[in-house]
Amino acid sequence: MRCLPCSGIRQPLVCEVGLWQPRKPDPFRGLHLAPRARKALQREGITTLDELRVVADQIHQFEGIGLKSAQAIQEKLARMAQPEERRSGKE
After folding, report:
1. From CA 91, how far away is CA 85, in angstroms rounded?
2. DSSP string, 6-48
3. CA torsion sign, 49 to 53 to 57 to 62?
4. 41, 49 in Cβ contact below 8 A?
5. How confident is the model at residue 9 (pLDDT cuts 50, 70, 90)?
6. 3-class DSSP state for residue 26?
């Protein structure tokens, strides 16, 4: 049996060594990161949005993330923070 991407199921499954398991949640889902940028963050040990926010002003220095990618990520992080600030009354 071949492993094929799932379509139509709310929580897709992935096949690991012949066993179907739920796909792990993606902490960077809303950022739409390129594979190269995702690998760079993984190499740096950044696994959560909170960790990414802490180093956001330094990510252009990471191997695999250029200046344009870093700026795009920083802008997306800023947009993601805006709804949270509105809910908590910080503006």
Report:
1. 6
2. --S-SS-EEEETTEEEEPPP-TTGGG---HHHHHHHHHTT--S
3. negative
4. no
5. very low
6. coil
Joined tokens for residue 75: 């802008």
Tokens of 53: 């926010």
Amino acid making up residue 3: C
| Both tokens assigned to 63 | 């191997």
More confident residue, 7 or 21: 21
CB 38 within 8 A of CB 69: no
Residue owning tokens 């696994």: 47
- The owner of tokens 């990618």 is 69
Give residue for tokens 């802490």.
54
- Rounded distance, CA 8 to CA 28, Å? 22
Residue 5 has pLDDT above 80, yes or no: no
Q: Which helix (H) or strand (E) holds 31?
A: none
Could you give the maximum distance between any two Cα atoms of the chain, in Å?
Answer: 54
